[in-house]
């Protein structure tokens, strides 16, 4: 058994962390990463902490007020994360359960569990029935949608930064025809593949294998193949990879 805690108040801070390597994605370039830091104060003096990543800076303007409203309703009550999570969601049913409201509820929920773990004097993982031990880790601070020629050097930097032993990548499968195949044949083959890839049973089979079905023109496939050849030839050359 451990000390029961009583909800007192929360302190919520929205901050932006400058990134050593900007996130370059299809939706934009991000040089800073927004975080919402939550400190849950209890009457007993135990502080539970959590943080949220809203992705967009301005999203904090919507999330933070919801957290404060939820906290005001909990003031003076015993911490009961399981029950509080459900009651907090129900209190927001008129504006919807998902999106901003769910993010706010989750942030408060994590802070409650953190406070209970501290009161119990054990890691949160243990409090929830898990164990403490080594976990696989990777450095995800890079390899965004940048110039292919820069990827190999950045991959090497990422491996070195944390003393990692390698890096993870995604494999792909591409249907090709022999060099010199007439353009009309290539066009017809591409059309038939597109037709097959659009069938629900084909999509279901690929997804079941862990693949993401994609298709495109012959020109797009040729450009992608060339970029991958350039990328991996650079990796092999700079890392001095040799076959066993």
Walk me through what this model shows.
Helix 1 (60-74) crosses helix 3, helix 2 packs antiparallel against helix 3 (100-120) and helix 5 (148-161) crosses helix 8. A hairpin with a 2-residue loop joins strand 1 (7-25) and strand 2. The model has no long low-confidence stretch (mean pLDDT 84). The longest helix is centred in the C-terminal third of the chain and has 22 residues, at 218-239. The chain has a three-stranded antiparallel sheet. It has three domains: 7-127, Enolase-like, domain 1 (2-Layer Sandwich); 136-165, no CATH class; 170-239, no CATH class. It contains eight helices and three strands; from the N terminus they run E-E-E-H-H-H-H-H-H-H-H. It has helices spanning 60-74, 81-91, 100-120, 124-127, 148-161, 183-197, 200-208, 218-239; strands at 7-25, 28-42, 47-52.
Task: Detail the topology: elements first, then pairings.
Blueprint: E1 7-25, E2 28-42, E3 47-52, H1 60-74, H2 81-91, H3 100-120, H4 124-127, H5 148-161, H6 183-197, H7 200-208, H8 218-239
Antiparallel strand pairs: 1-2, 2-3
Main sheet attributes: strand count, strand direction, barrel closure: 3 strands, antiparallel
| CATH architecture group name of the largest domain | 2-Layer Sandwich
Rounded radius of gyration (Å): 25 Å
Assign the CATH superfamily of the largest domain. Enolase-like, N-terminal domain
Find the count of extended strands (DSSP E, 2+ residues): 3
Domain module count: 3
Described by the principal axes of the CA atoms, the overall outline is: elongated
Number of helices: 8
Query: Order of strands across the biggest sheet?
Result: 1-2-3
Helical content (DSSP H or I, runs of 4+): 40-55%
Distance between the termini: 56 Å
CATH topology of the largest domain: Enolase-like, domain 1
CATH class of the largest domain: Alpha Beta
Low-confidence segments, given as residue ranges, are none
């Amino acid at each position: 058994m451990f000390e029961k805690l009583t909800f007192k108040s929360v302190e919520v801070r929205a901050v932006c962390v400058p990134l050593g390597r900007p996130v370059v994605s299809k939706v934009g370039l991000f040089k800073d990463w927004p975080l919402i830091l939550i400190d849950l104060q209890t009457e007993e003096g135990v502080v539970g902490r959590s943080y949220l990543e809203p992705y967009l800076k301005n999203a904090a303007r919507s999330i933070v007020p919801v957290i404060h409203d939820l906290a005001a309703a909990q003031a003076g009550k015993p911490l009961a994360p399981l029950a509080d999570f459900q009651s907090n969601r129900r209190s927001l049913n008129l504006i919807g359960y998902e999106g901003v409201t769910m993010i706010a509820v989750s942030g408060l929920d994590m802070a409650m569990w953190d406070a209970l773990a501290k009161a119990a004097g054990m890691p949160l993982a243990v409090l929830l029935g898990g164990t403490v031990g080594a976990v696989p880790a990777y450095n995800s601070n890079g390899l965004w949608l940048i110039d292919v020629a820069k990827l190999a050097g950045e991959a090497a930097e990422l491996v070195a930064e944390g003393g990692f032993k390698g890096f993870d990548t995604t494999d792909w499968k591409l249907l090709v025809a022999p060099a010199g195949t007439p353009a009309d044949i290539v066009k017809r083959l591409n059309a038939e593949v597109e037709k097959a890839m659009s069938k629900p049973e084909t999509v279901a089979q690929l997804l079941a294998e862990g693949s993401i079905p994609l298709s495109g023109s012959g020109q797009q496939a040729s450009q992608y193949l060339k970029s991958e050849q350039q990328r991996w030839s650079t990796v092999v050359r700079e890392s001095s990879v040799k076959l066993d």
